[in-house]
Amino acid sequence: MNFRRATMADADLLFAWRNDAHTRAMSHDGREIAFSDHLAWLDKSLTDARRDLFVCQGDAAAPIGVIRRDDEGALSVLSWTLNPDYRGRGLGKAMLWSFVTRYPGRYRAEVKASNVASQKMCVHAGFRLGEEKGGIFHFYREAPRPPK
């Protein structure tokens, strides 16, 4: 799997994934968004020094998903969306595992209790379940320790 920084050229693709009915059902905010609001969010996200957006591509350069990393100081919060065309193939697990091994760090992921697929992704990628708050599971992954 390869990762590249998202650009404004990805706006249509990311918008389609974000407004997918299943994606919205698994998101903290399940509302459908307008394209103009999406463009404003993407523009702000791409210029925010504390946020990174990575598009994950498979061997054939097909876009598999997107991972957002928000720097919160002591750790970074990850969130992701999988291309709806690739659900159910294990590619979400591979995408998250590839990301956290390529970009090691201290991470938290907030996953809805109903989002079993993302919970499995977290476990596969070495996250541990922390607390549950209001129907949201908080998963944590520590940076690997350097060898002695």
TrEMBL record:
GO molecular function: acyltransferase activity, transferring groups other than amino-acyl groups
Top-rank taxon: Bacteria
Keyword Transferase: yes
Residues annotated as domain N-acetyltransferase: 1-147
Alphabetic keyword roster: Transferase
Protein's name according to its UniProt entry: RimJ/RimL family protein N-acetyltransferase
Lineage summary: Bacteria, Pseudomonadati, Pseudomonadota, Alphaproteobacteria, Rhodospirillales
